[in-house]
Amino acid sequence: MKNFPTRTKGAGWARCRLIGRTFGLAGILVLATSLLGAREVSNFNADWRFDRFGPMPDGSERAEPTGLEAPSFDDAGWRKLNLPHDWGIEGPFREDLPNRTGKLPWAGIGWYRKSFELSDEDVGKRIYIDFDGAMSDSTVYLNGEKVGGWPYGYASFRIELTDAVNFGGENVIAVRLDNKPESSRWYPGGGIYRNVRLVKTNPVHVDHWGVYITTPEISAESAEVKIETEVRGSDDGVEVVHEVIETGVKSSGANSTLIIANPKLWDLESPNLYTLKTQVMRKGVVVDTVETTFGIRTIEYKPEGFFLNGEKVFMKGVCQHHDLGPLGAAINTRAIERQIEILKEMGCNAIRTAHNPPAPELLDLCDRMGILVQDEAFDVWGRGKAENDYSRFFPEWHEKDLRAMIKRDRNHPSVVMWSTGNEIKEQNNKAGIAVSQRLTDIVHDEDPTRPVSAGCNNEKSGFNGFQKTQDVFGYNYKAKENARVYKQFIERNPDIPLYGSETASCVSSRGEYFFPVVDEKDQGNGGYFQVSSYDLAAPPWAYKPDVEFEALDRFPQIFGEFVWTGFDYIGEPTPYNKDTTNLLNFTDPVEREKMRKELEKLGGNIPPRSSYFGIVDLCGFPKDRFYLYQARWRPDLPMAHILPHWNWEERIGKVTPVHVYTSGDEAELFLNGESLGRRKMGEFEYRLRWDDVVYEPGVLKVVAYKNGKPWADAVMKTTGEASKLSLSVDRDVINPDGQDLAFVTVQVSDKKGQMVPRSHNSVEYTIDGPGEIIAVGNGDPTNHESFQATKRKVFNGLALVVIRSKAGERGKIRLTAKSQGLKSEKIVVLAK
Ligand code: GAL
C-alpha cells in the first residue's frame, strides 16, 4: 500500500542548509543598508526592448549580429514592449510551418534588453533576477557579462547579478533566447512569456524557494506544521523565526515545528489557506522576511483509491497544455482563472500540467479554487520525440530542472502528485527503468510527502519493472477491450494505486455534425478538416469518453482520470496533423504503418493549426462533450443537453440522430410535441440516443427523469435567420491594472436572440475608453486569421474578443461589434 499521509521521513528532516559565506564586514554593512527587515521584490516586466533574428515571421532569414549584449549597443530601433510576451502568437499563420506546432512562427532567436538603475544605497545587497519561464535556452547578460541562463523553457529560475551590477548607475540586462525548429510536439510559444522580478536582499536572507512547509500530524484539534528553512550567508548570529499570520502562532529556528489549534483544512469545497511569515534576524535585527502560503490537508493513495483528509475523492481530471488560446503562451492570471472556472463548472476537480511545469500562477489559483494538481516535469528524457527537443539537455539538466520544479511547487496544497514524464520512450528498457528510479529518488529527496508518477502509454511498463519505480501508476489510453490492461495491472500489482493519466482523446469541432453518424469511425469529413461533434470520434489509439467511463465503473478502485484535454490548445491538430507525432502513440508496428498511410493520404499543405481534443474549444466555449462530463461529474446537478443543433434545412425527411447527455437516468424526447420515445440508460451507457429521428424543423424537447421523477429538461429549436449580434461579457467590472481582462462573447442571433448555429459572419470591433482589444478568436481549428486583430469571423455562431484594462485608467470601456447585414451591438465594461 502506498501511503502518503504527511508523516515526515526521518533523514529529510535533519537537513537545514545554511548556505554561503559568512559576511563579517558585510554584516556591518547589512545593518547600515538594511532593507528594513524585508527584501525588495519588484515586478520587472515593464519597458523592455525586443528584436528577433534567424527564421523570421515572413519566412525570411535575418542574420544575428554579434555584440547585442553590450551596454553600448544602440537598441533604440528595437520594439518597446512589456512582458510577459510571446512572439509566436503575433503570427502570421503560415502554410509552410508545421501543423503540430500551430503553423505559427515561434521558432527563431529573440533578444530582450532593458536598462535599469541601481542606487549607491544598494551596495552590499544581493541582487537577483527571477524568471518564471523564458522560451527557451536563455542566456542572460548583465552589463555585457554573461551571468547565467537556463535551457528548459518551462522552468523557473533565478540568476544572481550581484557581482556584475553597477551600483550607483545604469545597468543593462540582455536576454538571448533560441527556439530551434522541431523542438516541440505542440505550440510552445516564444519569448519571456512569464513574469520576471528583480529581488534585492540583505546578504543574509532566505534562499530561493528556501522555505519548505509540511504538516505531518493533523487532527481535528491540532496540526503540526514543520518548517525547514534554507538561509544564505548565514553565520552564528543568525536566528530564524516564523509566525502563522492567521493565528499568531510562532516558532523559532530554521528547522522548527509549530502547532495550529483547530486547523481549517484545505479541501476542494473550502480551500483554506494559511500564510507563514518567516523572518531572518541577525544580531537582533530583522534582515529578511518572506511569506509562504500553505494548506493543511492529508493525502493518501491506497489500492482502493485516493483520500483527501480521509475521504475518498475521485480525480475528475483534465490534461492542460500551457497556452491560453488566442493569448498564446504569454501568461495572464485572469485568463487561467477563467479556464479553471469553466472547468469547475463542468465538475472537473483536477488538472495534469501536461507535460511540463506550469506558470506558478496556475498553482496559486488551484490552491485558492480547490483543484488537485499533478505537476509534470517532462515530455521526454534522453530519447527525444522531436529532433531538437529537451532530450538534448536532459543528461546535463534533468536533475536541476526536477529539483527546481519541486522546490518551487512543494508548498502548494493543490499539488498532490508529481509526474516525472509523459509517454517516455525509455519505458521499455532496463536502462530506462534505472533512469526512472533515479528521477523518483530525486523527487523523494526534495519532497517525500507526495507520490511520484508518470503517464505510461506502453502496456508493458505496468509489468516490466517500470511500475515499481512509481508510487502510483498512470496509464494513458488503456480502457479499451473491456479495460483488459487495467484489469491485468490490478491483478499483478495489487499494491500500486492506479489511475488513467491520459484518457479519451475524443476529437470534435464545436458545432459541426456530419452524417451519417458512424460510431467510433467518425473521423470527420476529410477535405473540410472539421470533426463531427457527436463525440464518437477518436484517433486509433484512443476512444470516446464513454469507454473510459465504463472501465472506471468496472474498476472503482482506479482513483481518477485525466481527460486529454480540458481546453483545445494550439498545435497537434490530430487527425490532421500531417507529421509523425501520431506515430509515437503506436508501439505496434502494424498500427504505426496504418497511421503512416493515413497521414500520407492527407498529403499537401493542410490548414488545421490547433487541437480538436478539447472538451472546451480554444476560446473557452464548451463543446457538446462538456455536458457529457458534467452529467457524470456533477450527478446532483439537474441537467440535460441535446445535440445536434436543429437547423438542417437540407435534411428535411432525412435521418438525423439526436443524443442527450443528462445527469438523470431516463428521458423522453419530443419533436414538435410528438414523443419519440422514452429511453433508459442501461448498464455502462452514458448517453441516450434516438438514432432514427427524421428531421423536420421545429422544437426538440427532452424531459429527463431520475429514479422515475422529473429531473431536468432542455430544448433545441430551429432558429430564424441571422439578424443581429449579441454581446455578453464574463465580468462587467475589471481592475484598471493593465492586466485584468474582460472576455466578450460575440453571438450571431436571430430576431428572438437565439444563436444561429451555422453562422460564419465576419465581425469588426471598435473600442473606446480605458481598454484595448488584445486578442480575438472563434474556436475554429482551421482559421488562419490573426489572433491580434480587430475583426474575426464567428465560427458556428460564436466568436471571442478579449479586452485588457489600461494601467491606472478608470472609466467605461465600450466595445462595438458590427457585421454587414446584422444589427450591431455595444457592450460596456467598467474599469474601476
Ligand atoms: C498522447 C500524448 C499527448 C497527446 C495525445 C493526443 O499520446 O501523451 O501529449 O499527444 O496523445 O491523443
UniProtKB/TrEMBL annotation:
Residues of the DUF4982 domain: 653-712
Keyword Hydrolase carried by entry: yes
Domain of life: Bacteria
Domain Glycoside hydrolase family residue range list: 725-827
Residue span, Glycoside hydrolase family 2 immunoglobulin-like beta-sandwich domain: 219-297
Residues in Beta-mannosidase-like galactose-binding domain copies: 111-182
Keywords: Glycosidase, Hydrolase
PROSITE patterns for this protein: GLYCOSYL_HYDROL_F2_2 (PS00608)
Domain Glycoside hydrolase family 2 catalytic: 302-464
Sample GO molecular function, one term: hydrolase activity, hydrolyzing O-glycosyl compounds
Record GO biological process: carbohydrate metabolic process
Family in the record: Belongs to the glycosyl hydrolase 2 family.
Protein name: DUF4982 domain-containing protein
Organism for this UniProt entry: Pelagicoccus mobilis
